[in-house]
Amino acid sequence: PKYVYRFSEGDKDQKDLLGGKGANLAEMTRLGLPVPPGFTITTDACRAYLADGAVPEELSVQVTTALREVESELGRELGAAADPLLVSVRSGAKFSMPGMMETVLNIGLNDASVVGLGTVSGNERFAWDSYRRLIQMFGKTVLDVDGEHFSAALEAKKADRGVSLDYELDVTALSELVEEFKAIVREHAGIEFPQDPRDQLDMATEAVFRSWNTERAHIYRRREKIPHDLGTAVNVCTMVFGNMGETSGTGVCFTRDPSTGRSGVYGDYLVNAQGEDVVAGIRNTLSLADLERLDPTSYEELRGLMRRLETHYHDLCDIEFTIERGKLWLLQTRVGKRTAAAAFRVAMQLVDEKLITMDEALTRVTGEQLNQLMFPQFTDGGERDLLTRALPASPGAAVGYVAFDNAEAVSRTEAGEPVILVRRETNPDDLPGMVAAVGVLTARGGKTSHAAVVARGMGKTCVCGADALEVDAAARTVRVAGRDVVLTSETMIAIDGQSGEVFLGEVPVADSPVTTYLRQGLEEALKQAEDEDTRELVTSVDRLMRHADAVRRLAVRANADTPEDALHALHRGAQGVGLCRTEHMFLGERKQFVQNLILAQSENEREAALSALLPLQKGDFVQMLETMDGKPMTIRLIDPPLHEFLPDLTELSVKVAVDRERGTLDPADEELLAVVRRQHEANPMLGLRGARLLLTQPGLIELQVRAIAEAAVERLKVGGSPQPEIMIPLIGSVRELQIARERAEAVLAEVAADSGQVLDFPIGCMIELPRAAVSADTIAEEADFFSFGTNDLTQTTWGFSRDDVEGTFFKEYMDEGVFGVSPFETLDERGVGRVVELGVERGRQTKPELKMGVCGEHGGDPESIEFFHRVGLNYVSCSPFRVPVARLEAGRAAV
Ligand code: ADP
Ligand code: MG
Ligand code: MG
Q1: How far is CA 223 from the centre of its chain?
Q2: Mutate to test the pocket of ligand 1, among 106, 331, 449 (most ligand atoms within 8 A of CB)
Q3: Angle between helices 113-121 and 124-137 (to 10 degrees)
Q4: Closest C-alpha to ligand 1, atom 15
Q5: Hey, which of 25, 74, 90 would you mutate to test ligand 1's pocket, going by the most ligand atoms within 8 Å of its Cβ?
Q6: CA 639 to chain centre
Q7: Which of 104, 293, 577, 582 has the greatest number of C-beta atoms within 10 Å?
Q8: What is the pLDDT of residue 278?
Q9: Which domains does the chain have, with CATH numbers?
Q10: What's residue 100's pLDDT?
């Protein structure tokens, strides 16, 4: 197989093979942009390596060829003693995984070539600095030596020379440091630092392959739902040098602000620096405006390239560049990660600039981003103790206790305490703590620092570069410049990811502007908006939501059991209720009537229990139907087993035993215990519930249908337009539905006759057993609609009960790749999805126009919504707060 591609051979659509970084390096090369020459080793090679534990022989051969081509193009040889070619070895998977994989710079330097590099560059200091960086990075990432050893040696050297910054070390100091670094490698890795350039290259390549399987790569992929079997590509790229002096430097820029979405370029730049220095937040950075002053020519060229790339990719681009003695090089580009707010604003800016269509704009935002915009924010006014103001790196409002490291953040979060991870700066090792914490605060680093990039990717509130804070992780204290306070693990702080403010103590939070928009409309949201950014944001959300509503084929309903829930749903744009559960109508003080019903010995007693329940349930339905007036409302008749309304078996047994002992036993309790025992089920989920209960418990279905019918009559009398749809749960056979329908229709007819109203409400069923889906063609004969109950359908298709499995072996199953995400979160398309498809297909064989929807958690899950759209359902029903997300996702599915 072809394992190696020159940058000039690939293009941006080959991300599977070349990884994101490699594909985009190829694309830029193809466009003729200034990219240093190089080549990409494919993800195939990585997978082959991981499978066999060894580098495929063809790979070594192909690397030689590609390397020689680069060498002859540049007229330099890798690691040659005079004028050496140096390369970087960079990982790059299909999906960008910030900080997950290691990059090794300056490969090719050794005791001989360092001298040559010093001579040709006329800068000996630079050559030795590059060499010590190579040994440091190589030692850490390739040879697994603890990075602390190197940093400690570096710090000691600076102290010894009485300087405070890395670049103040002179040639002698640096060459001493190189020897010390080599000794560290010898001691901790047990080998000599490899002097052979090709060995360096091969070892680094293998290390990149191996890094695919590190713990933190696994954590990140799990979180981002990235499959574990993709592998990473490796990019070998000719080195250019940002650390050659004052006319050199390295930077990161964005074609628009990835944090707010403001139009206009944005970036960080560091003079006389290499590689990771910018993102590591080691020194505070300059802005692009500063670069314009320092080097107007390079700045102009960069601006032109940014515009070119944005036009080419039709999207916000994130670009890494280096200036070597006034010459600009591009080292990476990709469509930039951005905050939710930026996603909506940028999408609409691009539409207005006629770079993309409205349909495309919809694909640039996600339901999850919309969800993030609905997060609450800090309220204005009131007493607040502002500690400092730093860079707003990722929006949101987070309140929590200070946590100093991963262990603390994770354990306190598990104990239910909100924490904010506070670090001097973060690096990839801090990932578990960042995942756990509600927010991240760093003392150093710009908006493109590790903390900022990763937090934005996770939708986690982050404030960075708070240099007023002096974080001492070892002492577990934070000192605040100019303030007489010391923050400890006991301190509650609040960080504002929009303003960059850090407060001492708790700060109250309020609705976000987008929530105001969703609930009260655009006009009100604009009126309440505090600034232009917010106005542009809500306007962008409004335009995109309108477009989604216009193009989507799926209707969106809500699961709502109470008038309050129904109202929440309506305010967020729900077109009906897809699931109104009726079990709560049997709870509270009504439990007693249910008990009476179960215990009834005679027809009379049962009648009495039923008639006590009737007015109560009717009252509930009147309210719900009033709230949902003019909109469909699917009412599911009682689903859970009746014993859920009885006392707990164990508790009651104990009580009876104790009372008997004391001679205070109430015979009624003894009787009740006998009933509870009789009704006890080993497997309630598969027991006497749903249709089975409705058909066999005399009077139950009649009670519920009568309550619905009489409530509807009441609404009709006052000029309302009730649209109840009666739904029978847990149907397995058409005969069940037939019986239920006959009994329900009899009641409807009776109430209709008594009231003189027409009551021809649809009667349908849930499809939540595989048998129902398989025999959907016959069930459809008796059904006016189907609603796929995908929670139960997942349980019954897999044969596991959610309550029993989610907390136990699911995590292992996900780690082992049995499934990527919980099938209760995202519909398992290959299994449960096929059952749904079958149900749709067979149901429509019988009734081509049969209305079908889905209720259950999956109705609000983006990926599942896309699937429901594809199989041709008519609506999804989800929790009221997910309704906007579902509207947007249904729109996205349709374009
Ligand atoms: P990441 O995936 O973490 O962004 P990169 O492979 O892009 O890692 O490398 C990190 C940084 O190292 C780059 O931003 C760039 O500044 C520097 N770098 C990588 N390759 C080179 C090179 N060939 N010449 C100069 N700098 C490089
Ligand atoms: Mg990079
Ligand atoms: Mg169910």
Answers
A1: 7
A2: 331
A3: 140
A4: 275
A5: 90
A6: 33
A7: 577
A8: 59
A9: 4-238 (3.30.1490.20), 249-339 (3.30.470.20), 374-510 (3.50.30.10), 562-640+681-894 (3.20.20.60), 642-680 (no CATH)
A10: 57
- Please give the number of the atom of ligand 1 that sits closest to the Cα of 238: 23
Name the nearest CA neighbour of 502 among 584, 344, 403, 391. Answer: 391
Between CA 712 and CA 747 the distance in angstroms is 13
Question: Which ligand places an atom closest to the C-alpha of 240?
Answer: 1
Q: State the ligand closest to the CA atom of 795.
A: 3
- Tallying the residues shown for the chain, one arrives at 895
Give the tokens for residue 888. Answer: 């947007």
Q: Phi/psi zone of residue 639: left (φ > 0), alpha (ψ -120 to 50 degrees), beta?
A: alpha
Confidence at residue 486, expressed as pLDDT on a 0 to 100 scale: 94
Verify whether residue 450 is a known catalytic residue.
Answer: yes
pLDDT at 277: 67
Question: Residue 753 is encoded by which pair of tokens?
Answer: 């006759």
* Closest atom of ligand 1 to CA, residue 276: 11
Catalytic residue, candidates 855, 858, 869, 878: 855
Whole-angstrom CA distances from 69 to 37, 75, 104, 554, 828 are 10, 10, 21, 55, 48
Q: Ligand 3 centroid to 593 CA: how many Å? A: 24
Q: Whose CA is nearest to atom 17 of ligand 1?
A: 275
Six token digits for residue 765: 């069923």
DSSP state of 285: P
What distance in angstroms lies between residue 690's CA and the mean position of ligand 3's atoms? 8
**Catalytic one of 149, 450, 568, 858:** 450
Gap from CA of 276 to ligand 2 centroid (Å): 9
Residue 549, amino acid: D
pLDDT 10s digits, 795-810: 999 999 887 787 678 8
Give the span between the Cα atoms of 77 and 110, in whole angstroms.
Answer: 13
CA-252 nearest atom, ligand 1: 14
| The one-letter amino acid at 802 | R
| CA–centroid distance, residue 327 to ligand 2 (Å) | 19
Q: Please give the pLDDT value at position 101.
A: 62
The confidence score (pLDDT) of residue 4 equals 98
Which one of 277, 322, 426, 427 would you pick to mutate in the ligand 1 pocket, going by the greatest count of ligand atoms within 8 A of its CB?
322
- The per-residue pLDDT for 646 is 84
Rounded to the nearest angstrom, the distance between the alpha carbon of 250 and the centre of ligand 1 is 10
* Cα(239) to centroid(ligand 1), Å: 9
Measured distance CA(41)–CA(92) in Å, rounded: 10
The answer to whether the beta carbons of residues 320 and 252 sit under 8 Å apart is yes
Which protein residue's CA is at the shortest distance from atom 13 of ligand 1?
Answer: 275
Q: Round to whole Å and give the CA distance between 513 and 528.
A: 8
104 contacts 131 by C-beta, under 8 angstroms = no
User: Which residue ranges of the chain lie beneath pLDDT 70?
Assistant: 98-101, 276-283, 381, 457, 459, 807
Please give the structure tokens belonging to residue 133. Answer: 């960086």
Q: Which ligand is nearest to the CA of 105?
A: 1
Predicted pLDDT of residue 96: 78
Beta strands in 507-552 (DSSP E): 509-510
Residue 649 and residue 641: Cα distance in Å, rounded?
Answer: 14
Query: Residue 87 CA: which ligand 1 atom is closest?
Result: 23
At 492, the amino acid letter reads M
Give which of 222, 413, 16 is closest to 817, Cα–Cα: 222
**How many whole angstroms separate alpha carbon 330 and alpha carbon 237?**
11
Q: What is the pLDDT of residue 453?
A: 78
**Residue 179 — left, alpha, or beta (φ > 0 → left; ψ -120 to 50 → alpha)?**
alpha
pLDDT of residue 428: 78
Q: CA 572, 575, 576 angle in degrees (round to 5)? A: 110
- Residues in contact with ligand 1 by the CB-under-6-Å rule are 36, 88, 90, 99, 103, 105, 237-240, 250, 275-276, 320, 322, 331-332
